[in-house]
Design brief:
- By secondary structure, the chain is α/β, with parallel strands linked by helices.
- The chain has eight helices and five strands; from the N terminus they run αβααβαβαββααα.
- β2, α4 and β3 form a beta-alpha-beta unit.
- The longest helix has 16 residues.
- The radius of gyration is 19 Å and the shape is globular.
- The protein binds iron/sulfur cluster (SF4).
- Iron/sulfur cluster binds next to α7.
């Protein structure tokens, strides 16, 4: 999120922060985004009503010229998150640099299994080389989509060469991907 805000090409007015992640980590990690970067944040649940309320909360912050972290998903998220789960994460993982497809490497944004658990690391056990850094399939605009510089339908492959049964890029693979969501909820002509 910090890398997105710092990117001179992006223009981010506010963040809808992920409810499932925030159940574990809490809302406190977003505070530097609101305080130092002056971008409002609202931690949000997954129902349509949650999203609508969160958008309203963001708009009110923007209207009032506030920049805070607010929790819409208060039935599951607290400021400090789940202490037991965070302790488990710390026990099993080290923080490491991570390669974000279509964006590149960002320091301290990933997890790697600690040495004592490295025998469970699929990357050590399976002899494949995953794509690195800005590597994307030819013609895929995922990097621009993830940075908010394009919407999925502006990708020339959307719904043609690329759709959920035959994804070309990572944004079409998971149901949480922006391109997959655009595809699922696209307007289909009624015959
Ligand atoms: S539609 Fe497919 S190819 Fe285009 S940006 Fe999305 S994932 Fe990449």
């Amino acid at each position: 999120m910090d890398a997105l805000v710092a990117d001179p090409e992006t223009r981010i007015d506010g963040f809808i922060c992920p409810g499932h992640v925030s159940v574990i980590i809490g809302s406190a990690p977003y505070e530097p985004i609101a305080k130092d970067r002056q971008v409002p944040c609202v931690v949000t649940g997954f129902e349509a009503e949650d999203i609508l309320v969160a958008i309203r909360m963001l708009l009110l912050q923007i209207q009032d010229k506030r920049s805070e972290v607010e929790i819409q998903y208060s039935r599951a998220v607290t400021r400090d998150g789940n202490a037991s789960a965070k302790a488990m994460l710390d026990r099993v993982f080290d923080v490491t640099d991570a390669s974000w497809r279509g964006i590149g490497s960002i320091p301290t944004t990933g997890y790697a299994l600690r040495q004592e658990f490295v025998g469970h690391d699929a990357r050590m056990r399976i002899p494949i080389e995953p794509p690195q850094g800005t590597d994307l399939p030819k013609g895929c605009s995922c990097g621009l989509v993830m940075r908010g510089l394009k919407i999925p339908t502006e990708c020339p492959l959307f719904g043609k060469a690329c759709e959920p049964r035959h994804p070309v890029g990572p944004c079409m693979v998971s149901s949480e991907g922006a391109c997959a969501a655009y595809y699922k909820y696209r307007e289909v002509p009624v015959s």
